[in-house]
Amino acid sequence: VESLKQAFEGKFYIGTALNLNQIWERDPAADKLIKSQFNSIVAENSMKSMHLQPQEGKFNFKDADKFVAYGEANNMFLIGHTLIWHSQAPSWFFKNEKGEEVSKEVLIERMRNHITAVVSRYKGRIKGWDVVNEAILDDGSWRKSKFYNIIGEEFIELAFKFAHAADPDAELYYNDYSMALEGRRNSVVKMIKNLKSKGIKISAIGMQGHLSLDFPKVEEFEKSILAFAAEGVKVMITEMDITVLPMPNRNIGAQVESNFAYKKEMNPYEDGLPKDKQTIFEKRYLDFFKLFLKHEDKISRVTVWGVTDADSWRNNWPMPGRTDYALLFDRQYNAKPVVKQIYRFGSS
Ligand code: G3I
């Protein structure tokens, strides 16, 4: 076995996110890697509402069209990310021409128009949509987003209904991070039950896999896989990466930008990742892939959030200019040692 897609054939799709610059165009080495390793792709940024509808009624499908054409040309399972998300939504979405907050009715119409235009454009081509992204907080309460504040929790079911109407065959997902936390797990279970009790289609839960070297525990992540699958939906591991960098434990703000010592503390591995960290990192990836394989009957896709370490958003968050090592391929496009082990486990 020489690739991830071979390793998991017949088990689950293995995907990657492609960034806004649509890396295959400017980067033949990345193009080769993407084609040889992955059989599913998702656009990291270019299908967010801010990019697709920067002004009301003025759609910009240029990057999204290229992404879809690339996926089709390479026979990949295409994921759309994301229809309704509080972040990266254009500011006009929530305001009228006087700059005041729109009414519930207007916001619902805008949701309907956006979802209908986007989903119908790629009907039958994009196979699954992250319909709603990140609507629940760590403690399980609703995120007080504009969507929630103006419409109420009903915005979730409306989004799923609009998406289903635009492409009845598309799979529809709810996607969120830190899904191993008990609060979020329980609320997502409630959400699935609620949608199902109303006859609204939900196909899978996307568990974003933004992990670190010590969070979350594999067992907590597993509990969530089991809890979601028990509700009769598939589970997808979306947005996987494992940061090796320390998390800031104080308020990041202007003072940080100018604080050299803090920057150094937050970016300790500019010259390379120390061996001990590398070992923990490799074990972490392996442990999680073993977990996914254990539950391959419940999991339909695992997607990593970028191709090489150089592409990862982790290098720019929570401040730009960090050097992270979060993905499976290094900055020279080489598979990290753990990839060979993943091949072996995947195909055994
Ligand atoms: O394209 C502009 C560029 O022209 C400009 O010079 C530069 C200066 O800041 O910004 C560039 O846009 C950035 C974009 O990524 C492309 O690199 C945005 O500022 C930046 O906010 C954006 O970050 C993305 C983030 O979502 C916010 O949309 C990350 O790439 C992307 O990895 C991240 O992905 C999210 C998922 O969608 C949802 N789950 C969490 C995940 C990680 O935050």
Automatic annotation (TrEMBL):
Keywords: Carbohydrate metabolism, Glycosidase, Hydrolase, Polysaccharide degradation
Catalysed reaction, written as an equation: Endohydrolysis of (1->4)-beta-D-xylosidic linkages in xylans
Lineage per the UniProt record: Bacteria, Pseudomonadati, Bacteroidota, Sphingobacteriia, Sphingobacteriales
Domain GH10: 1-345
Family the UniProt entry places it in: Belongs to the glycosyl hydrolase 10 (cellulase F) family.
BP-aspect Gene Ontology terms: polysaccharide catabolic process
Superkingdom of the organism of origin: Bacteria
Enzyme Commission code(s) on record: 3.2.1.8
Protein's name according to its UniProt entry: Beta-xylanase
Pfam families named in the record: Glyco_hydro_10
Native species: Pseudopedobacter saltans (strain ATCC 51119 / DSM 12145 / JCM 21818 / CCUG 39354 / LMG 10337 / NBRC 100064 / NCIMB 13643)
Molecular functions (GO terms): endo-1,4-beta-xylanase activity
Broadest EC class assigned to this enzyme: hydrolase
PANTHER family in the cross-refs: ENDO-1,4-BETA-XYLANASE A, GLYCOSYL HYDROLASE
TM regions (residue ranges): none
